[in-house]
Amino acid sequence: MSENSSIAELVQATSPENIGWNSEVAPVVIPPRLTLRLADVDTGSNTPSMVKKVLLWQKSNPEQAALLWASLDAANNYIGQVWSSLVEASCSNNTEYNSAIDWCSVRPSSEWKSDMDAVGNPTRALLVNLVDGILRVRQLQRELGENAGVPIEPPKQTRLLDACMTVPGVCMAAVPGAGGYDAIFCIVLSQESGNAVERVWSEWTEMSVGPLLAKQASSGVSVLDSKLYPSLTAMLE
Description:
Helices cover 54% and strands 9% of the residues. The protein is built from eight helices and four strands, in the order αβαααααββαβα. The protein has helices spanning 3-14, 47-60, 62-92, 94-105, 122-148, 155-165, 191-203, 230-236; strands at 35-41, 170-174, 183-188, 209-211. A four-stranded antiparallel sheet has the order 2-3-1-4. A hairpin with an 8-residue loop joins β2 (170-174) and β3.
């Protein structure tokens, strides 16, 4: 296959007019003061092999797989709904929102439910829901991995993620993408929380964990001036 034909196929495959794209597109905004921390794990995983095994299990167990897929989809969508509610809360009552973020940022998420004041604080309740949501996603990812015989959230990663969740101000910790040993991410509520997470990574001995410079962006897909990328533009013409 020539280079030109490969590029043409890529353009066709990624075109919005390709009927193979059956997903719904919806805007997602990261709530204010929530910050992404991403780390590389040096063990690594063979993602194509993992995906192949998952698809083979899905094909061999269609009913069980359909139920698990639906549960995982619902759990992921739930997190999206909580994020949207947090964004709305930051706009409707910014003082209450910031007060909740300040309170939670200096306490581990395991304590967020215990304080009775949380009953009258909608933002704090939403942050509790966010923690419950990511724990549910992780549970389903482990279940999928066990069923398919692939390490989507392997025990070493589980121990690392659980340690991250004990850090004050951490509301989410999980494996991104296809899972495995490639990376982990955390969502933190303050600079201090992020620094504390990175200390956990630097002191972790079971695996080598290194922070990455990648940061979140809330702007979504943007239209860029093609003249800024002449080499890429020439390839696509």
